[in-house]
Write a structure and sequence with these properties.
The complex is a heterodimer of chains A (about 550) and B (about 210). With about 550 residues, chain A is α+β, with helices and mostly antiparallel strands. Helix content of chain A is about 20%, strand content about 15%. In chain A, the strands form five sheets. In chain A, strands 4-11-12-13-10-16 form a six-stranded antiparallel sheet. Helix content of chain B is about 50%, strand content about 0%. In chain B, α4 crosses α7 and α6 crosses α7. The chains are: A alpha+beta (about 550), B mainly alpha (about 210).
Chain lengths: ~550, ~210
């Protein structure tokens, strides 16, 4: 197995509990809060001096193709690298931990909205009803605090949330009051974070620095403090950290033989295996498959139809800001407490939508860019704004459902290599024009709410140009029923290579108008179940 | 090449007796709020490092003055007090070493520009003149032929970003001396919430 993040952690636990012998290879290390504590400049959200939870700038590179066709080499700490994380737990160590189930329509985007020009928008080969039991399993095994009593748009669920919801903070209360007056439906954000002690981990202590950081008490659930320890406890799973996988070895008959990797000392190894599962993130999984050339798959594993690495998507984040006439800041992290889903679907003339929520606390350096248009960026005016408004800015933001397109892609650059000599990711293309249209619409909705909240001044955020991806990266090895237009079947099994599976957001056909992690976990349980039921020791029945 | 301590420059803003007293008050109140009864800091010193890792003293002088323009001292500490120059210097000799050439060329262009417009080095200009010149860089309005790579706007934006990092980031990187910017914003530090991170501690409150 390649990659000990969200998806890989789940599969490792499921397969090792089923008695399979698992080797889990992870390029990064175990994360520790104390190594970086609450340092804003070494945060996974603002890694100006490096990523605390990987990958490092010294050994990793990517190539980004600019809009004018030129290309640049970028480092993991630079935004264009489109990093998620590289450590045991992956992005689930330092995320904001919002625990969204996608809505049923999110799996049927083409049926709901029809075809969209210059887009590969399609339905998933599985539906919400297929994933529901796995969403439930993820919520209970990781631990989710939530309450959907006030959310009429929530996907149907059989069981309640395992933990009570977190209360609204000061800003959240104002959002809730304003949206109710406007006829909207606010409710507490479901969180992969303990509101009460759960599964041997304590309740949240409300750090101001939460998103972008590891949790010092493990109140935030990640694969590193839930499923991976359970996998290791079985005695059937061996986790090897500091190990970088270069390729999946595929023989001349189209079977995966194992992987070739480098250990912490740079020593090369081949790990043979009956089954290979790749969970390295949408960018790195695509890169690994493309770097795995064989007789039957000369352009990379599963890539005979040129779909590996295509349809790279993430989430454009849009919304608005408002200045309050009094203090709304509360010293209780992480800060995001309330959301509403009134605009996820059914927006006239638009495809999809997204949830809106109040935001995580902005730490002082990031706050320097929270400014109305035209506001001076430096000098005494800068300091005055910081002092006057640090505790008085209200923010309403959310992810928009992006429209996948074939040209937004990960390929490999044979001329640029990482420290192990492996060709790096080459990112090219740009987001679909509809994203900008939808972004404007959602920002407008957010601005209306902020005005209703009594903001003395409001302004909108806007999507930047270029490519999407980043922490919510998805879509590069989509699942589908037709091998001509997908990379895996509905169970995550790569077309044409029976014993090669994918279990991460690469599989997502579309990425919902929500943070993707709970869906990644649910799909990983789904893929695991297929492997467990189909594997008959040596082959699939 | 490293030199000795850099003296405060004639052109940098002076610290009046009145504002020094205010600084003392801000400092000790902030610490009292953050830690408890023990006042660890009674005054905020200028904090140029005694030696530089990435700059010559001649390069540091105009840069210190430019950073002070970006976040100037008023009732609260400015970039110089907070140790922004120490932050930038340390990073250019470490994780941000890739920007070193940009700084070297940019500082050279800054001095050429100052000489052209005022016949003086940037650090010796009056505060208001420095402000005008900085505003020209931001808008790309200083003599174009004195700038190559980086452009004046690119240089301004890079120094602005690094000045913010040095002023608001963790003191362990050389800037934000004694969390002076956190006190300015009214943010408690150490952040007492979340410090009970030892096994079992979180359960008490749960």
């Amino acid at each position: 197995m390649v990659g000990a993040g969200a998806g890989g952690g789940v599969v490792a636990k499921e397969l090792s509990e089923a008695g399979l012998s698992v080797v889990l290879l992870e390029r990064g290390d175990w994360p520790h809060y104390d190594a970086h504590n609450d340092d804003e400049l070494v945060s996974q959200r603002t890694p100006v001096l490096g990523n605390p939870y990987g990958p490092d700038d010294a050994r990793h590179r990517r190539v980004v193709v600019n809009e004018d066709g030129s290309s640049s080499v970028v480092l993991p700490s630079e935004g264009a690298y489109s990093n998620n994380a590289g450590c045991v737990g992956g992005g689930t160590v330092s995320y904001g931990a919002m625990a969204w189930r996608y809505m049923p329509q999110d799996f049927r985007m083409r049926s709901t909205y029809g075809t969209v020009k210059d887009s590969t928008l399609d339905d998933w080969p599985i539906g919400y009803e297929d994933l529901e039991p796995y969403y439930e399993k993820a919520e209970y095994e990781f631990g989710v605090a939530g309450d959907y009593a006030d959310n009429p748009f929530g996907a149907p669920r059989r069981k309640p949330f395992p933990m009570p919801a977190f209360p609204y903070n000061r800003e959240g209360q104002r959002v809730a009051e304003a949206t109710r007056r406007m006829g909207l439906h606010p409710f507490p954000i479901p969180m992969l974070r303990n509101s009460v002690p759960y599964n041997g981990r304590p309740a949240c202590i409300h750090m101001r620095s939460c998103v972008g950081f590891a949790c010092p008490v493990d109140a935030k659930a990640g694969s590193q403090n839930t499923v991976i320890p359970r996998a290791l406890a079985t005695g059937h799973c061996e986790l090897r950290t500091g190990c970088v996988v270069a390729e999946v070895l595929v023989d001349d008959r189209g079977r995966a033989q194992g992987v070739r990797y480098f250990d912490r000392e740079g020593q090369g190894w081949e790990q043979l295996a009956d089954l290979v599962v790749v969970s390295a993130s949408a960018t790195e999984t695509a890169r690994l498959l493309l770097n795995s050339r064989s007789k039957l798959f000369p352009n990379g594993a599963g890539n005979n139809n040129d779909w590996v690495g295509r349809n790279l998507q993430g989430h454009g984040y849009v919304g608005a800001f408002g200045l309050a006439s009094d203090e709304v800041y509360e010293e209780a992290g992480p800060g995001a407490t309330v959301a509403f889903c009134d605009f996820n679907h059914g927006n006239p003339g638009l495809v999809g939508g997204g949830m809106l929520a109040n935001e995580f606390i902005a730490l002082p350096y990031v706050f320097c860019d929270v400014r109305p248009p035209g506001e001076p960026r430096w000098g005494k005016a800068h300091k005055d704004f910081q002092r006057q408004y640090y505790k008085r800015v209200m923010r309403l933001y959310g992810p928009i459902q992006e429209i996948p397109n074939f040209s937004a892609r990960v390929s490999v650059d044979l001329s640029v290599k990482d420290a192990w000599g492996i060709p790096v990711c080459r990112l090219s293309g740009s987001r679909h024009p509809h994203d900008h249209e939808l972004g404007e619409f959602m920002s407008g909705k957010a601005e209306q709410v902020l005005k209703e909240m009594g903001a003395t001044r409001t302004w909108r955020g806007r999507l930047g140009p270029g490519l999407s991806g980043g922490q919510h990266q998805a879509g590069t090895c989509r699942m589908g029923n037709d091998p001509a237009t997908s990379v895996t079947n509905r169970n995550g099994q790569v077309h044409g290579i029976d014993n090669l599976f994918i279990a991460d957001a690469s599989l997502h056909v579309t990425n919902g108008g929500f943070n993707p992690v709970l869906t990644i976990l649910a799909v990983a349980y789904w893929v695991s179940d297929h492997i467990k039921s189909g594997w008959k020791g040596g082959g699939f029945s | 090449m490293n030199g000795g301590p850099v003296q405060p420059t004639a052109g940098a803003p002076g610290l009046s007796r009145r504002s020094a007293i205010k600084l003392i008050a801000v400092g000790s109140l902030g610490v009292a709020a953050g830690v408890g009864a023990t006042a660890l800091v009674t005054r905020i010193d200028r904090s140029e490092p005694s030696r530089y890792f990435a700059f010559t003293p001649e390069e540091a002088l105009p840069l210190v003055a430019l950073c002070e323009q970006l976040i100037p001292r008023d009732d609260a500490a400015g970039a110089t007090d907070a140790g922004v120059i120490a932050y930038i210097d340390r990073q250019l000799a470490g994780p941000l070493a890739r920007h070193r050439g940009t700084y070297r060329a940019g500082i050279r262009s800054l001095q050429l520009t100052s000489q052209r417009l005022y016949q003086l080095p940037f650090e010796t200009l009056g505060f208001g003149q420095q402000t005008s010149l900085a505003a020209m860089l931001e808008a790309g309005l200083s003599p174009e032929e004195l700038w190559g790579e980086p452009s004046q706007k690119a240089f301004f934006n890079l120094v602005l970003d690094h000045t913010r990092q040095g002023f608001y980031g963790s003191p362990r990187h050389g800037g934000n001396r004694d969390y002076t910017s956190y006190r300015m914003l009214g943010l408690a530090y150490p952040n007492l919430i979340g410090q009970n991170r030892y096994p079992g501690a979180g359960r008490l409150g749960g």
